[in-house]
Amino acid sequence: MEVDDNECESVFEPHITEEHVETHYGNVHCIMVGTPRANHPVLLTFHDVGLNHKSCFDTLFNHEDMREINSYLPVCHVEAPGQHEGAKTLPSSYIYPSMDQLSEALPAVLKHFGLRRVIGLGVGAGAYILAKFALNHPDLVDGLVLININPSAAGLIDSVASKLTEWTHTLPDTVIAHLFGKDEIETNHDLIATYRHNITTTMNQSNLTQFLHSYNNRNALEVERPIPGENINFRTLKCSTLLIVGDNSPAVEAVVDCNSKLNPTETTLLKMADCGGLPQVDQPAKVIEALKYFIQGMGYCNNVSESCKSSGSCAKRNLNHSQSSRDGERRYM
């Protein structure tokens, strides 16, 4: 179902639909917030390992500055098989999908909800899945906001380190080290305790282990920065892409590497100053400003309230006057 452009749900609470969508690779838990609108994309989110849509995105979407976007663009949260709250242990006969297969489960989600185009918002493993989806289905993706993306396959050293970690650390320790940097783990005890509690009490440990294993066995994205007159048959993301990472995140090098492989005319890298492993949790207001400007740059969200326009202008100033590098990096000062 779609509503006309002039209809708005901001006066009322948005309609929420929670469903298990059947795909070729198992059922995925989806939460549709709002009603798709004619000629508007939908924000499609995908979480990281050890998180679900609540622990990954609630801080961002419940922030007061996000209200304009929430009223303008519906949101579809997608959770990997067995990663939602209260999930039962997956059957022993179930073969957990690879990262590539999870990306190929998304067309079934779009078809189920009648979605024509999306703007992807992913974190970590979810960012990788959405990027892979955009590579294979560019006609379905208007833009991507990728937080903490790692475009590389896990190498031999990474695999050995991961195996050693599995032997010497608990699953929560492994996930915490994936999500947060060393300094953050050592100093921000309340935040780490909150996420450790979430991992141990709301996530099915067997299912989480399988999702983590799938991520640790990912293939490289196989994207290449176009060079005029040289790599004619290059493969890269065709949509506008915003890469975000905190400067204290364990994913900094991976995100910078990803930026170096993408088309600089379509890609912006935001490195958030004094920010930890989860920018959307640590500095949601700044992420929202960047998101508003990014969406407005694609021609959407231009006729919302003055507060949204003001925030978008603020974000534009931050982007235009922030420190830049030759690779298109932007840093919030």
TrEMBL record:
PANTHER family with a match to the protein in the record: N-MYC DOWNSTREAM REGULATED
Q: Which gene encodes it?
A: LOC116049240
Which protein is depicted? Protein NDRG1
Annotated family:
Belongs to the NDRG family.
Family annotation (SUPFAM superfamilies): alpha/beta-Hydrolases
Pfam families named among the record's database cross-references: Ndr
Q: Which domain of life is it from?
A: Eukaryota
InterPro entries of this UniProt entry? Answer: AB_hydrolase_fold, NDRG
